[in-house]
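Hi V.,

You were right to ask for the full record rather than a summary. Here it is.
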Amino acid sequence: MVVDNCIGASRAADNNFKDLVEEVFDEYIANEIPIRLIHISKDDQGLNFRLVDRNIVKEHFKSVPDEIHREFRNKRFVDREGSIRERVKEKLKYAIFSHRWLFSEPSYQDMSTEPMRVRADPEPKWKKLQEFCRKAKDDHGCEFAWSDTCCIDKTRSAELDESIRSMFRWYRNSHICIAHLSETANLEALERQQKGEKGGGAKVDTWFTRGWTLQELLAPPQIKFYGRNWEPLVPLDHSKSDRFSDTIMQKIHKITHIALGDLKSFKPGTNRVPEKMLWASKRRTTRTEDMAYSLIGIFDVSLMIAYGEGNRAFFRLMEEIIRRYDKWDVFLW
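Predicted structure:
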């Protein structure tokens, strides 16, 4: 009887653990990854991609809960749920894109839910997206990817609102951020940029001057920089990620004046407001409101999205920051 009770209790505990893994898996997909992703596949004729929603992502990774259950069932953890969540994140990997928008980019309406063949001679607006998908798949082993140009239905205000407010988190949860410096040929060119035009160097790549790319630089745990011709600035056999590479981060530090500690491991929050605002003050956005919206994740605050409000967006951002930051230097930047 005692043995039977022990076996029954063990089975119940195992079932409860299995249910917990399923719940964490479901919650992660619903809350921590983008609304839509690009699914990248390969066949005998080359590369294909299609737009998929969270339900298809869930179906694709349906074996993950059982894999984690088998892996963790006999282990002890200080934070069991946190450990499961981290393992889910590792399994559900996707690449995310950081780039300077061109005049014409593929939109959500241009994409298909059926596989699209990568053409040998694509239009300019498709070439960049196709190269991004190729690097995500071939260089970083990601079957899924996200680009702000085509993965958001910008005609739906609720979806646009959620995407902007979640974007820092989506970059944070990515497996790799692929950053395309379209005006930088190689590492030597980046080195010339750090001197600046006044110092006899070269013009800084536009990527370093745009508002949204600030969070795209700081949020991802891993980032890889590619030059104009889609060659990595630091060879892949040296490092799959440039996040901890002094070779490139020293140069970016000199261009952006962001401390190396922040470039290697940034923590969002309402601390050091003047310093962070100084970083942002050197950048521009096409829409006035985006100067505020692009800083939501940097300061870890919540802000409703209301395009058309103009500079009022920045005033609201400062109000949210001041509620949490009571030092006298808040406007000293």
